Amino acid sequence: MPKIKTLVLCVDRDNDIGEKTKFNGYFIGEKKCMEVGNALLLADPEDTDANSIFAAVKTKNEIKNSEIAVITGDKDVGIKSDKEVLKQLKAVVGKLKPKETVLVTDGAEDEFVLPIIQSLCPVVSVKRVVVKQSEKLESSYYVMKDFANTIIREPKLARIVIGLPALALIILAIFGTTGWRLILGASGLYLLIKGFQLEVWIERVVNEFMSALRRGRVSFFLYIVSLIFGIIAIFYGYNKMILFGAFEWFISVLAFINGSIPFFFVAVFFFWLGKVVMVQMTSKKETKAVKDAWRLLTILSLAFAITIVAFTSTEFMIKPGVGLTKLIFSICIGFFAIAISLAIERAH
Prior knowledge:
By secondary structure, the protein is α/β, with parallel strands linked by helices. It has 3 domains: 6-138, no CATH class; 154-197, no CATH class; 200-347, no CATH class. It is built from 13 helices and 5 strands. Strands 2-3-1-4-5 form a 5-stranded mixed β-sheet, sandwiched between helices. Strand 4, helix 5 (114-118) and strand 5 form a beta-alpha-beta unit. Helix 7 packs antiparallel against helix 8 and helix 12 (286-318) packs antiparallel against helix 13 (324-347).
């Protein structure tokens, strides 16, 4: 085959030709490419790859000392299809030995192979075949597809773009239309944290809580009590400013906590019991097994203390008739439960 100066190249990256017709790439020459284009139009008149083939034929006739070629990829668009494109392109370039290439493409997807083509033969021009009714739709599709892939690959973006809307939908499913107030409040809080750059301060508070949970369970219990009294203070302070009826959503949240927390504790108890049994069965040393069992007992006592304090505090806010004495008494019981369990753990 004589050497040619310009290769007019059409790329079917997703191999619509192979999937819809009897032909398999690659194809060289105007006659063969016209035959493939006609077959693709008969198989699927709406396929834009056929437009690209005929546009490439037209371009070839406008350029002296040129030849046309059509190469295909694979329906599995990505690495697999690009490897097939590279393989066929090497064969075409090896036969024609062009000095330059003109790429004719029907949209954004086929242009992803541009670096592959340039690695074998310089691309002097890219001609896009614009099907007016689909150009914007196709470009928008690939922009959205790339954006979705970026979100999936980046955990930080996934938490914001996917995680937060998912949390909002869960809140709406639980609280109905009143959930919008919770969502707006949470959104405002998030914007406040970002606006005043409070992330570092919040991270320190969370680390302090986690450190207290690991090292000093009495401190963790006291932190929880402090947090509960802070919530009570906000509730009663704000209640002085507006009518009580405006707080129905908050009452609903408190009622949910008050009704569910005893059962949560029962769930924690059975989980704790299963953990104790597992420790006893898997531990090789009897002394270590006993020590782990008593350590787990202090964790259970911590869960019990938090449960009774949360139960009485929510009851205290829901039912104004419930006295403050009951809340203080529950705090004392919780404190002594943790103190006794810690004393027993150290004694053993």
